[in-house]
Amino acid sequence: MSNSVMSQSKRKENEFYDLERQKIGRVTVRLVQFGCVVHCIDRYVGSFVMCCGDSMVPTLFNNDIVLAENISVAYKKLQKGDIVIARSPADPYQFICKRLVAMEGDSVIDDNSERQYVPKGHVWLEGDNHRNSNDSRHYGPVPAGLLNRRVFFRVWPFSYMGYLKHPAER
């Protein structure tokens, strides 16, 4: 084979690999952009959350998937009766799903029939299933800074899909 035919074939091969590298580069850029959008939505808007445990029965069951939004927490628009996701005060690597029962300045009656006041910057969280819930009745008021999201819609199971109602709306 002559040198010119060989160099022509080598050039076509290099052009092919250059086009492939460009395609891979474009796909990589799109994936990074998509990842950034997903991260921003998760961090600032909301996301899907799987609730584990029985502390919120009968409102939420083990392995229910819900939509939770961050905006109410960020703008301090939470209300008594909201279901929230928070970092556990007992284990900061774990998240808990509980109902917001009282806010700063409110009083609650604990399991010992004693009145407790929720201090400034704190909230009182309880599970709907009082017999099977480790909550503020055990660890006291929770710093509001541990609140993460507000749960508002059940996605799974489909047979129970819908907005979660406040206790007053039931």
UniProtKB/TrEMBL annotation:
Protein keywords: Hydrolase, Membrane, Mitochondrion, Mitochondrion inner membrane, Protease
Localisation: Mitochondrion inner membrane
Main location: mitochondrion
Official protein name in the record: Mitochondrial inner membrane protease subunit 1
GO molecular function, one term: serine-type endopeptidase activity
UniProt xrefs under InterPro entries: LexA/Signal_pep-like_sf, Mito_IMP1_subunit, Pept_S26A_signal_pept_1, Peptidase_S26
Top-rank EC class of the record's enzyme: hydrolase
Domain Peptidase S26 span(s) in chain numbering: 30-108, 114-156
Highest taxon above the source species: Eukaryota
Keyword Membrane assigned: yes
Active site: S55, K98
A Gene Ontology biological process term: signal peptide processing
Subunit structure: Heterodimer of 2 subunits, IMMPL1 and IMMPL2.
Annotated family: Belongs to the peptidase S26 family. IMP1 subfamily.
EC numbers: 3.4.21.-
